[in-house]
Write a sequence for this structure.
């Protein structure tokens, strides 16, 4: 099998698979008490949000990634879900540990509530039954569920090289059953390497706490524990159940037997360390038997308090190497392997930090020796397949050699130092702070436009399924219930007509249409020929005017003469404009400031004004120092990955200062504003300032009318206003934009952060 | 005044003005009998079609141009209206003469009918009154009404140079009143130069006919007549009415007096040779008094039988020079000028072909001497202002010298030769034939895309107002009643969502969306990186595949391997595709022929298949000769101005033939098809063949479903079908186009011409 794989697949391809993670986490307050508040409304009905829902308790958030083909994407998405959730739970935190925070007695544990619909009632009642049967406190244990299947191409290739006369589904089932059995055999290693529940709070289940020593106020442990969650104090069936992994039919049969015997009610009550999963888990038995194993669910993994996502990327790499190891590892015919594996689990869970022995085919073997043995095999495999994960395996090898490298040891150490609540809360606070600093972006999608990231983030939050159709084009598909919407670059949607966009794309046509509808636009003329424009020049000489090409954007090819221009300058400007379009426009220049009105569905959601890069003096620091401080703002970055750009004190800025008899070492006096450039582009460090609440409604109405005139549902209206404090001020609509950026309104330099994405989603019918 | 004008305006600018023409014409049958059929339904309700309506009789078409700033545009549009009308009246013709064709007695003349609405009833009843008062036959006289005003900039400039203390409106009224008076004084010259009604049919008004001699069967004239329409046998008030042209107030007052005296019922019954027109002619008096003269209407001009439009471009140039002459020409204080001018009109009308004298300020003067005198003044003016119309003035000078150059003489000559009916019908047939040959285009708009011309033509036909917003972009505005629609390139409209277009623009996204909706598309993969595509190449080697960039059109960057390709060829193809896009696709190649389905509003309006340039042998002619014959088709032209391109026997065609052991001199055997190129582009002389009625509905349904899958209302669906005669044939949708050309379906090389524009207009709500 190894050779077969080697021939067909590269290491890179072998690192692919189908990965999905579910991560639970309790919401707690600032004292580390289980939160009693309801699950945030913005996440919508829990039953229908595929990303963010609750598990047993109303206060137990469950984050679910979609299935990705790469480990990195999965991990990043999980971090993203964390960020989204952390930003919506206000003063609360996500408790970063499988073992609960401070929890009340059963009667006070809030069970998750759902919609009044039939499935909602069922879900709630099921939780009530669990509470009665297993007690509430153990239900509050959180964990990582790791869902995995191999790349189908790999299984197909193995099938093709297979000599037995099996059908494909049986063959594939065979693969997953072998992996499942091996997983159970070797799971102790995963628990050792990833276990993080070496300690519990005194409010946890009394029978557990009372067996342990208080290692610090309120924190209890024995010596050497590694994963209480995987111990008898974890969550398990009342009787140990060993389903058969010989075949799918036998697996189904054994579970049906458990149900018949009254141990469990349904397959989902079987709390085994691994589960075979079907294509349609709502029709579990029949789907599994008809279509075979779809994927495996690993359930042994504790939340890692040292990772925001609850599991480290490195550990996910290791788990996939482990998957491949389990696939290749030959089995022997030792019969009591299930019971033995359970014993090993218990030993590791309770005493994993000690130098213990485990059972291997009935014989005792040192945990370390066996662990190193497995790692050696994995290293050989890694080299053979070119998986390039030597570093990961080396690190795990060291961990086997020294228990002090385990998460279990490390968190214990922190708890002893800071206390159980403090140690965990400080981690949670740090993760929340990180989420805040990255609030403008969606983790894992930083290569996409900010506006798209913001929209995707809002969609995910609301449980709208997001699919990327073309990443480089920021082309996504949103889906919830019956409503499928395609969106490109956040503001190109089904809600605007094509012709509306084409009108906006053509400045001359825009003006004609606006003018027709009585909207004030700059007076002027269009020219298709250079000669005609030059002939008509006499009317414009000496007047305050703007010369611009008909269709380009971003100010390219535009000349502005606020004080008027002579014939030579005008001729030049006309020539420049014609370089960018076949049609140019000469228009009156409107004095004043330019404001961007964002109009969505006949409402002004934001008004923004841009000013050139600048610093404000404090009478103490130099311009250079002031720039450094200003650049520390987490909204400022480089290369358009942030809402604002860092100010660059480049040659052009220095020259600009020089013209004003200043240098970067000049110390501006207190409150003195020093501009560092002429242009107000955000891309050169300019500031964006929110004016939404300052501009009088009369101008907002004009902006809305302008959008309506071209039939636009989403529209950036650029307006020159001489003096916005004067309702009668001279003004003109100078341009309409069909693809307005939303991030500039969401995250301005100064002023209120506007929520735009939710209005866009509302417009799209969500 | 001359100096003032000279300083500010160029000759080119002085040739501008505001021009609009109304041209009447009787519909007649193939025998020259007045048509008894109703006005074609396609023109809609006559009251609301601003371009094509009826005058007095149901059989009297009236063509109305909008106001243009240039003479050329006006004339071309008028020709276009003629073409449109001629194509809709089936076996009938537009009688090309002011004097009627064969007409029945009053009781059998069909009076125009209108909608049952109030204004419709009014219009019909008004015509009934006219019939009773003036008789029906004279109502059937047709003519040209020329509506004119100066470029407002000219009047403004004159006003600024004016020293009197007048308000602007009074000043402008003064200008138009002077022009009107001078027009009346010198109108005899216009009648001489343009008069074309030297003859009448015996079915015309008996009192007129009986005074004349039969110059040929059924045709009557005296000797020397020039314009019976402008004679007593023309259409005039029962009493000669001379309104005052001293001021607008006096003009209004005098007309009110005529009404009070019972001569006429309303201003529009005043059949003067010139009319002052108001901004709002439905509120004639008040509008004229409040806002002044808006334009002038000249009513002396006969239909010119020798021009399709009814008036020659040269004569329109002359008329505008005449306008400028009337503006400049100083008046004297001779009081009886109105009566004198009427006398001159009568003399010219009845005896203009003779060497007669006219009255000038009470003195007799030779027509020729006076005429040459005026022409001399006009020539001086022409030179001074740089109007560059020497040729026109020279021709008119010759006409004054020789009556044989008049239209009146020429048509008389033709009638004598062919007979009254034949002579005119032959001209009408010729114009109709011309209209047919140009049926695919809209006269005057040949620089625009054919699809746009076709849509505009259909809109004009239906009385939908067409405005061009951006000519080079084929951006137009349609308006009828409340419904304003913007359209670019005929098929970019408000009916398609922007995102629908963006989906279609991106082939990879199109495929994903189609696939999601269960539409069969070629199987394949997208790649964002060259390395990835090359790595995946192993799956495609030797397979029939297509390699293409994600977004480009027109086949650029596409490589097709129907027989499969080796690694080297594939690598090359991948590189080529990446030169055109960041994303490329490798897809299975579907065998068969490609068909373009045009789907509009969930209906397949046309299916087209293209074949490479070819000829079919007759066993007699050489390839070269066969190409020459094929190129004679009026649908074939050069430079994309026609639905098909002429076949070019260039080097590439010769080489292609050489490979098949042929040359352009080869004589193919009977029915042998000889292809001249590999590619089937229309641009290289390919043929378009209509398959609309041949393709089974199952494929049509697929095309409709494909359009629906992306939400497209207007969509070109490109489908490969292995064998369309087999309903179960293999097929795949390979591409969707959001801007499908319509002209290819409207005017295919072979097969039925499909009406597409009317469906587009219906989709747009018209």
């Amino acid at each position: 099998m190894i050779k077969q794989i080697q021939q067909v697949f590269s290491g890179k391809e072998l690192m692919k698979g189908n990965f999905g993670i579910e991560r639970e986490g309790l919401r707690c307050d600032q004292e580390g008490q289980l939160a009693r508040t309801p699950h945030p409304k913005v996440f919508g009905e829990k039953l229908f949000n595929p990303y963010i829902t609750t598990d047993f308790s109303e206060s137990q958030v469950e984050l679910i990634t979609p299935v990705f083909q790469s480990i990195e994407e999965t991990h990043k998405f999980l971090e993203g879900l964390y960020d989204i959730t952390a930003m919506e739970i206000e003063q609360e935190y996500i408790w970063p540990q499988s073992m609960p925070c401070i929890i009340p007695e059963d009667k006070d544990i809030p069970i998750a509530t759902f919609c009044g619909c039939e499935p909602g009632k069922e879900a709630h009642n099921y939780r009530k039954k669990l509470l009665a049967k297993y007690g509430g406190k153990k239900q509050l244990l959180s964990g990582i569920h790791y869902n995995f299947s191999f790349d189908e191409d790999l299984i197909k290739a193995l099938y093709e090289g297979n000599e037995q006369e099996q059908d494909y589904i049986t063959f594939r089932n065979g693969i997953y059953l072998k992996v499942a059995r091996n997983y159970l055999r070797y799971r102790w290693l995963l628990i050792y390497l990833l276990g993080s529940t070496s300690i519990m709070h005194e409010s946890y289940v009394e029978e557990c706490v009372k067996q342990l020593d208080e290692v610090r106020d309120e924190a209890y442990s024995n010596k050497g524990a590694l994963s209480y969650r995987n111990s008898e104090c974890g969550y398990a069936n009342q009787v140990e159940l060993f389903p058969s992994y010989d075949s799918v039919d036998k697996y189904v049969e054994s579970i049906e037997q458990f149900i018949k015997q009254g141990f469990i009610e349904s397959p989902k009550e079987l709390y085994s360390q691994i589960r075979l999963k079907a294509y349609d888990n709502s029709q579990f038995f029949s789907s599994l038997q008809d279509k075979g194993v779809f994927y495996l669910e690993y359930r042994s993994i504790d939340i890692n308090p040292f990772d925001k996502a609850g599991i480290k990327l490195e550990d996910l790499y290791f788990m996939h190497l482990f998957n491949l190891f389990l696939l290749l590892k030959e089995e022997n015919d030792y019969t009591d392997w299930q019971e033995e594996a359970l014993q090993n689990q218990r030993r590791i869970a309770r005493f994993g930090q000690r130098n213990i022995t485990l059972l291997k085919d009935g014989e005792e073997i040192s945990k370390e020796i066996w662990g190193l043995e497995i790692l050696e095999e994995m290293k050989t495999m890694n080299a053979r397949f070119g998986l390039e994960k030597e570093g990961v395996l080396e690190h795990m090898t060291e961990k086997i050699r020294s228990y002090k490298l385990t998460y279990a040891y490390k968190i214990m150490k922190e708890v002893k130092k800071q206390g159980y609540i403090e140690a965990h809360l400080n981690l949670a606070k740090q993760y929340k702070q990180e989420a805040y600093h990255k609030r403008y972006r969606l983790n894992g999608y930083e290569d996409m436009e900010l506006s798209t990231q913001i929209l995707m983030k809002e969609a995910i939050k609301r449980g709208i399924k997001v699919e990327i159709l073309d990443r480089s084009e920021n082309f996504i598909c949103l889906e919830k219930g019956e409503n499928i919407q395609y969106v490109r670059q956040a503001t190109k949607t089904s809600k605007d007509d094509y012709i509306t966009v084409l009108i906006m794309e053509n400045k001359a046509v825009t003006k004609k249409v606006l003018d027709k509808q009585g909207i004030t636009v700059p007076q002027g003329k269009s020219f298709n020929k250079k000669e005609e424009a030059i002939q008509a020049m006499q009317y414009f000489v000496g007047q305050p005017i703007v010369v611009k090409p008909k269709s380009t954007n971003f100010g390219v090819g535009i000349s502005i003469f606020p004080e008027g221009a002579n014939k030579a300058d005008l001729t030049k400007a006309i020539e420049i404009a014609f370089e960018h379009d076949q049609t140019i426009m000469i228009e009156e220049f409107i004095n004043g400031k330019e404001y961007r009105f964002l109009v969505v569905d006949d409402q002004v959601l934001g008004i923004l004004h841009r000013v050139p890069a600048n610093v404000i003096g404090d009478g103490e620091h130099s311009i250079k120092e002031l720039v450094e401080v200003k650049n520390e703002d987490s909204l400022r970055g480089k290369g358009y990955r942030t809402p604002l750009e860092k100010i660059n004190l480049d040659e052009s800025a220095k020259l600009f200062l020089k013209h004003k008899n200043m240098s970067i070492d000049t110390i501006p006096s207190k409150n003195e504003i020093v501009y560092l450039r002429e242009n107000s582009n955000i891309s050169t460090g300019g500031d964006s300032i929110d004016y939404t609440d300052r501009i009088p409604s009369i101008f907002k109405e004009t902006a809305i009318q302008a959008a309506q005139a071209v039939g636009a549902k989403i529209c950036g209206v650029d307006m020159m206003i001489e003096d916005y404090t004067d309702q009668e001020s001279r003004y003109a609509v100078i341009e309409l934009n069909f693809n307005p950026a939303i991030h500039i309104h969401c995250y301005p330099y100064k002023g209120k952060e506007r929520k735009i994405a939710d209005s866009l989603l509302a417009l799209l019918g969500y």
Q: What stands out?
A: Residues 122 and 630 of chain B are 54 Å apart (CA to CA). Chain B touches chain A through 36 residues (CB under 8 Å). The longest strand of chain B covers residues 17-28. The mean pLDDT of chain B is 94.
